[in-house]
Amino acid sequence: MSFDQKTLFDKVWDAHVVRKIEDGPDVFFIDRHFIHEVTSPVAFLGLESRGIDVIFPEHTFATADHNTPTINQHLPVQDPLSANQLKALEQNSAKYGISHWGLGNPKNGIVHVVGPENGITLPGMTIVCGDSHTSTHGAFGAIAFGIGTSEVEMVLSSQCIMQPKPKKMRINVNGTLGKAVTPKDVTLYIISKLTTAGATGYFVEYAGDVFEKMSMEGRMTVCNMSIEMGARGGMIAPDQITFDYIKGREMAPKGDAWVSSLANWKSLKTDEGAKFDKEYYFVASDIEPMITYGTNPGMGMGISQLIPKASDLSGGTATYDKSLAYMGFDEEDRMIGKKVDYVFIGSCTNGRIEDFRAFASVIKGRKKADHVTAWIVPGSHIVEEQIKAEGILDILTEAGFLLRQPGCSACLAMNDDKVPPGKYAVSTSNRNFEGRQGPGSRTMLASPLVAAAAAVTGYVTDPRELIQ
């Protein structure tokens, strides 16, 4: 192998190394830093205690999302902790000259939705946020990953972070996806095969014609869930689909800057012959609409299949048995037909306009099941306006659904949208851990199509049965 042959990951990583520490991590420059109300307050306290300023405030972007209510956002936030964190984000942003999109701001929304849609996220960048699903931005050919609170302080004060360079993995999916198989199904399928620890220590590049044909929204869904198989992050090489998505967005390059940026972005691809530490190949036709049955994203299956027996899986049975007991399921159960109490579409995984188009395609001409509570939550105000402009709101209203306001909502139990104990939720979010959507809640991860089918039937339903 020639030293000139580099992976996409190598090209972006190596271009951002400020200094290498022998037998230690790299000092690594960060192009974009996103912050929200949950992980930033302690970092700002650290700056204040040391008398340090934010070195490059123009590289940091703040938005409120985790603790925000999704109804009546014009009213004061009732939860004292949430209100304090939101206020702290606003005050700290003002103090240090950081762009802040709080409640009521037309640009407000989930951090990993508003970054791309405003042209902040660009190919070849390094992007961090105190949130594990920062890997979403890798869909643009960026290196993006979540960081801890102390690292948030480090980036605010120095615009750098100390990181060991991860190993490299490539996951290839080729062929033609079947009916009602979405990017969410592709990523749930991959995680079910690799397990939640299968990519630990790696940065993943997704390759193959399935990803090349995906929209940017779909690519963001895939990269978003890279962390759920243990990866440090995931990325997809930028191409014409990427460039078309970025062009014209508010903070994207314009004029001559666009021309020079585009020339650079076109070089961001893995060289032929470049080596990966590990590589996987999957066939698109093997994937059907997916749903999880357990308490981690790796416990997923094709919706028409039976819950596997512990004896058919590698590893011990104690954790597996505990997971099924928590969910109230048994080995060899059929998921189709299981009652659903709640449906959630939204989050940084599936809160973009394409997801609501898919949801609407199933519910159009149908009615929400009476016993189902549905949270329909756009990822941003921009998505909310698209839903209205495209007539999707009319379809939702006619079918008996209420459109809520932007926020992380029921992805995690940090706001008012909590699934009650013992209740079952089909969720388009990214995690189904015990209590993730509320103490005692039972979560089944799925695509917007599967969520829509459950919302109108009241049970886990194969969306292929409802799609003409």
In words, what does this structure look like?
This protein is an alpha/beta fold and 468 residues long. The protein has two domains: 8-283, Aconitase, domain 3 (2-Layer Sandwich), CATH 3.30.499.10; 290-465, Aconitase, domain 3, CATH 3.30.499. The chain contains 16 helices and 18 strands. Helix 13 (353-363) packs parallel to helix 16 (448-457).
List the helices and strands and how they pair.
Blueprint lengths: L7 H7 L2 E4 L5 E4 L2 E4 L5 H10 L9 E4 L16 H17 L2 E3 L9 H7 L8 E4 L13 E4 L2 H10 L1 E4 L3 E8 L8 H12 L7 E6 L1 H5 L2 H9 L8 E3 L4 H7 L8 H11 L12 E6 L6 E3 L7 E3 L15 H10 L14 E4 L1 H4 L2 H11 L9 E4 L4 H9 L2 H7 L25 E4 L14 E4 L2 H10 L11
Parallel strand pairs: 3-4, 3-6, 4-5, 6-7, 9-10, 9-12, 10-11, 15-16, 15-17, 17-18
Antiparallel strand pairs: 1-2, 2-8, 13-14
Helix pairs in contact: 2-5, 6-8, 13-16
